[in-house]
Amino acid sequence: MKKTFSKIYLGLVYLFLYAPIFVLIVFSFNESKSKSHFSGFSLKWYVELFENELIMTSLINTLVLALISSVIATVIGTMAAIGIYSMKKRSRNMLMSVTNLPMVNPEVVTGISMMLLFVAVAAIFDIEQGFYSVLIAHITFNLPYVILSVLPKLWQVNNNVFEAALDLGCTPRQAFFKVILPEIMPGVFSGFLMAVTLSLDDFIISYFTSGSDFQTLPVTIYSMLRKQVPPSLNALSALLFVAVLIILLISNITAIRKEKADMRR
């Protein structure tokens, strides 16, 4: 009875979570603009979506921004994690408190403070907010998540392996890239994926730091929702959901195959 009840309860939880998404996907194929009556199957909203220059430009902006900011944040965050790891305990604890602050700080506070900073810089150097201001903002709020993803892997690394590599003739740089980096790579990759996800999902900070010439997809969708909800947004949401689902499936399948291969060894 307990197992049956737990399965029913779990099914209801998943139904509550994913039913709205499935309804959205179904109505993305609706022939009419109705949000309550399915009048027939049609792909015209997907065609309209790809013909919408504003949405496509915003989507490209979002993907490029997420990729560049995540790569930069991953590199800087990995270096910062190594630096924090090598510190003494007291200094490490103080620096980690400062590192965790952007995560517990409300996004609206971060967005407004960065907007004021960029406005002051723009007034001094006569530049406008745009791609680079949003890029700096995204790198900033992605850094703590990368650091927290890499640090646990550093704690798991055996220092004797690094010292053995030095004894065998490697330079500290070679020992890092050939010994340490492969060991912490799962944490680095997890931090990168976290940074990509946060960058794609961010709205508040992007809203405050983006200018009139550069808009991310969440900001564009918000501006469109002020008037009405166009059916093409249903199609866009469905495509984003399917893309994320495919990435998760590929990631899980790869992890399972790697685990099986390690067990065979």
Our estimate of the beta-strand percent is: under 5%
Shape: globular
The helicity comes to over 70%
Discrete helix count: 11
Radius of gyration: 23 Å
* Helix/strand/pairing category: mainly alpha
What number is the mean pLDDT? 85
Termini distance? 41 Å
Order of helices and strands: HHHHHHHHHHH
Largest sheet: none
What is the number of strand segments?
A: 0
Task: Please describe what this structure looks like.
This protein has helices spanning 2-27, 44-51, 53-85, 89-104, 107-125, 131-156, 159-167, 172-201, 204-209, 217-225, 231-264. It is built from eleven helices and no strands. By secondary structure, it is an all-alpha fold. 82% of the residues lie in helices and 0% in strands.
Helices and strands in order:
Elements lengths: L1 H26 L16 H8 L1 H33 L3 H16 L2 H19 L5 H26 L2 H9 L4 H30 L2 H6 L7 H9 L5 H34 L1
Descriptive tags:
single chain, 265 residues, mainly alpha, 11 helices
In short:
The chain contains eleven helices and no strands.
